[in-house]
Amino acid sequence: xxxxxxxxxxxxxxxxxxxxxxxxxxxxxxxxxxxxxxxxxxxxxxxxxxxxxxxxxxxxxxxxxxxxxxxxxxxxxxxxxxxxxxxxxxxxxxxxxxxxxxxxxxxxxxxxxxxxxxxxxxxxxxxxxxxxxxxxxxxxxxxxxxxxxxxxxxxxxxxxxxxxxxxxxxxxxxxxxxxxxxxxxxxxxxxxxxxxxxxxxxxxxxxxxxxxxxxxxxxxxxxxxxxxxxxxxxxxxxxxxxxxxxxxxxxxxxxxxxxxxxxx
Length: 264
Prior knowledge:
Blueprint: H1 7-17, E1 25-33, H2 41-47, H3 52-59, H4 64-81, E2 92-95, E3 101-105, E4 113-118, E5 121-127, E6 131-140, H5 147-153, H6 156-163, H7 170-188, E7 199-202, E8 210-213, E9 223-229, E10 235-243, E11 250-256
Parallel strand pairs: 1-11
Antiparallel strand pairs: 1-5, 2-3, 4-5, 6-10, 7-8, 9-10
C-alpha cells in the first residue's frame, strides 16, 4: 500500500506505469526451525554453503542459539538466491552502511531479500521483479511486551490500537505493530537510526496494513505494501515490499525451508 503523502504522485503515474496483471509479483517467505543446542541437520546442511568469513562470524557467537540462527539465515539465503546455474557457495555478498546484506555477484542471483530470526525460527523473504526492496521481521508470541514500551516506541495511532485491544490480546497487537515497523526499517536499510515514531501503520488487522510517513524525510517514490503473517504457530511476522510502480497483483507465499534441505 502507498502512504497518503504519496497519493498525488501515484494518481499521476497510475495509468502509465502499472504492472501488467499478467506479470504476477510474488514475495516468498521461507521459514526454518533452528536448534538451541548442538547444530542439527539443517545447521549442518546450511554450513556447507557458507563462505569462510561467514563461518568465522558464526563462531564468534557465544550462544549456540545465535550461532545456529546465523548459519541457517545465511545458508538459507544462499540456497534460495541460487538456481540451477548458480551454486549457493558461489554467491558473493556485501552489506550497506547499516549492515543490510545484498548480492554483488553473480548477476543471476541478484534479487531483493532479507533475513530475520527469533528464538527457534529463521525467516528469509525474497521478491521477484519489479520488487525493489524487501524487509522481514519475526517474533515469538511469548515475548514480553507492555503498553509502556508501546508509548516509548510507537506513534500515537499505534498506541491507541494496542490499548484498544482486550488485555489478553495486547501482546499480539504490540508484536504486530513491532514486526511491521521492523520490516519497514529493515527494507530501507536504516535500522533503528530511523525513529519508530516517524511513521505509523493503520488498518493493522486488515492483513495488508497501510503505512503513513509522518516524517517528510521518509517519503519516496516507492509504493509500499505490507503483510502481517504467522509463519508458524506461536510466531508473528511481517513483510515489507517496495516497488517503483503500483503492484497490480502482489502475492505472498509462505514456505517451509526445512523440507528443502538434505545432508550431502
